[in-house]
Design brief:
Elements lengths: L1 E6 L5 H16 L3 E6 L5 H13 L4 E5 L4 H11 L4 E3 L10 E4 L1 H14 L5 E5 L5 H16 L6 E4 L4 H13 L6 E4 L2 H13 L9 E3 L16 E3 L2 H17 L7 E4 L2 E3 L6
Parallel strand pairs: 1-2, 1-3, 3-4, 5-11, 6-7, 6-8, 8-9
Antiparallel strand pairs: 10-12
Helix pairs in contact: 1-8, 2-3, 4-5, 6-7
The structure holds 1-methylethyl 1-thio-beta-D-galactopyranoside.
1-methylethyl 1-thio-beta-D-galactopyranoside binds next to helix 1.
């Protein structure tokens, strides 16, 4: 049997590691995986990807594309009787979803810096068109508020390391070096580390940096990155197991499944 996997841009580290994990688990369960990658954001491209998978007669679909609730609903409808599982949607979506806990991930990063004594904290968002980027941003702001703080700067990148480099370079050129920067993913944190190094700022002595994802390379950044771990292997296992169960029992009640995240303390915070 075959699993259809519709995915966002695979040149990004997290989605490619998610696909790898899904492929491994599917192989272990004797399922094929066919992949369709969208190059454009938005519903039209996602629907085209899903339709191309459906036309290949897949038995179930995993969708790792950021979708608003109405968009996910439309994709779900397009799937008809073929079960679909969503990985990048709001926890409020009433469908089959598996996501990492965004509130917990955001809280862990902010509280880690606050415990180290930081008060001047800057935020580097992912693209706010992405529901996951918005949920992380909301979680950061809420945790800061609980501690009587507000971000000293808010930036927005596009998940790429280059965007992280550009955003943090600009902030530093304006002479606004914060005590800590919380970044929405490890790739942008990589760019942030380069920007800080170029401006002669030491990490973590002058500025602390917290990433998000814990992708395979993050332990080899200079310095090794402190980050929020989303266990992509675990996501791969959970999503294939869940989809296979849905294929075998299509009538099951839709359920949100929230996976835990964890702070991984390395060398970019002090
Ligand atoms: C999310 C990653 O955290 C982020 O780094 C980026 O790669 C993004 O995906 C791409 O859409 S993980 C996702 C399952 C919310």
């Amino acid at each position: 049997q075959t699993i259809g996997l519709a995915t966002t841009n695979l040149s990004l580290h997290a989605p490619s590691q998610i696909v790898a994990a899904i492929k491994t688990q599917a192989g272990d369960m004797n399922f094929n995986v066919v992949i369709s990658m969208v190059e454009q954001p938005g519903l039209a491209a996602c629907k085209a990807a899903v339709n191309s998978l459906l036309s290949q007669r897949v038995d179930g679909l995993i969708v790792n594309i950021p979708l608003e609730n109405e968009e996910a609903q439309a994709v779900q409808n397009a799937c008809g009787n073929v079960p679909a599982l969503f990985l990048d949607v709001s926890p409020e979506l009433g469908a089959n979803i598996i996501i990492f806990d965004p509130c917990e991930g955001a809280r862990l990063g902010v509280e880690h810096l606050i415990k180290l004594g930081h008060q001047r904290i800057a935020l580097l968002n992912g693209p706010l068109t992405s529901v996951s980027a918005r949920l992380r941003f909301e979680g950061w702001k809420q945790t800061l508020r609980v501690h009587g703080l507000e971000a000293v700067a808010v930036m927005e990148g596009d998940w790429s390391s280059l965007s992280g480099y550009e955003q943090v370079s600009r902030l530093l050129r304006e002479g606004k070096a914060p005590g800590g920067i919380i970044v929405a993913n490890d790739q942008m944190a990589l760019g942030a580390l380069r920007a800080l190094a170029e401006q002669g700022l030491a990490v973590p002595a002058d500025v602390s940096v917290v990433g998000y994802d814990d992708t395979e390379d993050s332990a080899c950044f200079i310095p090794p990155l402190t980050t929020i771990k989303q266990d992509f292997r675990n996501l791969g296992k959970a999503s294939v197991n869940r989809l296979v169960a849905l294929i075998q029992e299509p009538g099951a009640q839709p359920e949100p499944q929230i996976l835990p995240v964890a702070l991984v303390e390395r060398k970019t915070t002090a």
